[in-house]
């Protein structure tokens, strides 16, 4: 996301110096949102989707929270740290719940395996962003 | 977006064989959504945001349409081509309007220059996806 | 949505005088987005979700397009009519596709019946908004 | 939102019996998302938007979190309470921050007054939903 990096770098008044963490989180959250959406759609296409209900639901919730987290983090000048930290917690919680769900099917379904990896990566990017805001 | 690519590749029943175009569009639209959000925030932080009103508004609309386009394209099994094509048109239209707006300020503001590039890239990815669905 | 109506009425520079149509569309699209999301979740909870795959997918696409339409229409000052009209078309198309899908199950499942009604109402509100912009 | 109420009532397996609180929250969050979006657009249209930067930013963040909260709460079968509770906290925090910001301008701008009321109402609906999940 080279153009996003340049957009961030040109911001006249960022609220923190967490530009690198922000860029990494937007990339991770955007990929996780898409992977979860695709994984839900793939689970739904399996011969019997009934046993995958919890997985599909985790995917849908996680996709929504990752998308909104990418949105918030894309505003470098935004300044309410309490909102930001709680949202990062919510996103990381959803990512870990979805990863745990998808990992149960990872042996059998590659879309769950790849999705779980995207979720773990996004949860870690949330944690790093949170540390960068606080520290 | 290597994990997204693997998720797409493992889908049991994609509606088309446009996996490469879909992957490229999700990447372009995700970056454009973030770049437009960041550009709006940067414009708002400039000393006098009043002359940048139209730019901020184009950024916000474009960010919303790119985000929803990334979402739709992330469902490989979805099958209503009329909805998809019209949405790709709406997204490409918003991207081109936003690029034209940002290009007016590109000399002076690097965030507008980078954002305009992201918009042009996303509009082209929409066009390629549309051709891949139809053809 | 009385508070939204007051917010719209106090806007210093609306791009059109379609305030009533805009308010009605935001209300219809917000309800449709939620009803489609709930209908997808309800379909997924049925004993055998496999025959409801197309319905779930239509619901998810329609929910996304209604949510983004509500967002765009909530900006009274936004001024690119080409983007707006194409987006209204995309939303109405998704609503009608989803209504047609849900109506196939409406006899048997009340969540599909109520969702189809919300889709038809939103499609009509899109049409009225489009006429108000053009005319 | 009568059709949403019927959709909720017909869900075959809700995760809790908080249907009334869920319906009220979706209505409040949908209105708040739209009112915040409209208020940001109205602030941007004022003669001098520079002093309204913080208000616009609070509006944009709050609109995003309200929209995603409406989305999550629209899935009655979803079951990860930790994610849900944290997201309700994030939304209520954003709503209160935005209300406090808008209230500073409420005397002078009716769009800020109406928006602040929508934010307070949504924050309370989040609190009631959280109590209904826990209790």
Number of structural units classed as domains of chain A: 1
CATH topology of chain A: Substrate Binding Domain Of Dnak, Chain:A, Domain 2
Topology as H/E string of chain A? Answer: HHHHH
**Amount of helix of chain A:** over 70%
Biggest chain pair interface: A-B, 44 and 44 residues
Spans of chain A with pLDDT under 50 lasting ≥5 residues? none
| Reported CATH architecture of chain A | Up-down Bundle
**Amino-to-carboxy terminus distance of chain A:** 25 Å
Strand content of chain A: under 5%
Average pLDDT confidence of chain A is: 95
Find the count of extended strands of chain A (DSSP E, 2+ residues). 0
Please, how many helices of chain A?
5
Largest sheet of chain A: none
- Radius of gyration computed on alpha carbons of chain A: 16 Å
Structural class of chain A: mainly alpha
- Oligomeric description of these chains: homotetramer
Q: So what's the overall shape of chain A?
A: elongated
CATH first level of chain A: Mainly Alpha
Molecular structure report:
The structure is a homotetramer of 135-residue chains. With 135 residues, chain A is an all-alpha fold. Chain A has a single domain, classed as Up-down Bundle (Substrate Binding Domain Of Dnak, Chain:A, Domain 2), CATH 1.20.1270. Chain A is built from five helices and no strands. Chain A has helices at residues 2-9, 19-45, 53-73, 81-103, 110-134. Chains in contact: A-B, A-C, A-D, B-C, B-D, C-D.
